[in-house]
Amino acid sequence: MLAGIAVIIGVVVATGGLNISRLILLLAFTVAAFVSGGGNAINDYFDRDIDRINRPNRPIPSGKITPKVALFTAHILFTTGIIFTIFLNIYCFLLATLNSVILFVYAWKLKRLGLVGNISIGYLVGSTLLFGGLATAHLRGGILVPAELLVLATMMALSTIGRELIKAVEDMRGDKKLGFKTFPITHGVEWTTAVAAGFICAAVALSPIPYLMGIFRWPYLLFLTFSAASFLAAIWIMIGKGEKAAGNASLACKLGMGIGLLGFLIGAFL
């Protein structure tokens, strides 16, 4: 659902809120929701062993569904999402297909290979905004993605990478038992915290640009303040406390992302 909302924000920002077809909005939302849902399902499938240690209440380790059902669900969601792009354009088809492949490979291999996995998730989150731009490319005379949308996508990507690094610290116990080579395992918690802080601070530094570019009006600044405070609080929580504080820091990042996305949404419609 959040991926679909991000796509709608991308559509509104890319078009200025003008001449938006409700059908395009619905199709773009549906594609993002289905592909993202497929990513969640395939992630649960490949993470079933680690979830028995880190998150035993999740659907597969708790016995609510079988791994086979999760795998089947992922394939159905990916396929359905890609099929819906036929009613949009070739650019949406290519991006949805690419992201589906990345989501599969991430869950299968990339998330266990350190920073490359974290960066791939950052790209995937940022690309939801880009998808909204591509869905309305026919309204801009050849410009696939406007510059203002690239700024927002970059902000989302950077903040996501920071949160993913913090989540990797939170998952260290189970990752170590299964022999994964995540960033905090290979480089340590302190260095991971520093790198995560760098990505988060970069996102916060870029956050005033949408207002300065005239993309969003003053209500955006209100949400920006609380979102930035949540992200910076996550860094503060992590400093010197390490693995024990990672859960609370990850929650603070999630809150910051939620407030930021709400700020994008309200800013896009005002």
Outline the secondary-structure elements.
Layout: H1 2-15, H2 22-46, H3 48-54, H4 67-84, H5 90-108, H6 115-135, H7 147-170, H8 172-177, H9 183-187, H10 189-206, H11 209-212, H12 219-238, H13 246-269
Notes on the structure:
The chain is mainly alpha-helical and 270 residues long. The protein folds into two domains: 1-145, Orthogonal Bundle (Tetracycline Repressor, domain 2); 146-270, Four Helix Bundle (Hemerythrin (Met), subunit A). Helix content is 76%, strand content 0%. The chain contains 13 helices and no strands. The chain has helices spanning 2-15, 22-46, 48-54, 67-84, 90-108, 115-135, 147-170, 172-177, 183-187, 189-206, 209-212, 219-238, 246-269. α1 (2-15) packs antiparallel against α2, α2 (22-46) packs antiparallel against α4 (67-84) and α5 (90-108) runs antiparallel to α6. The longest helix has 25 residues, at 22-46. The relative contact order is 0.12. The mean pLDDT is 89.
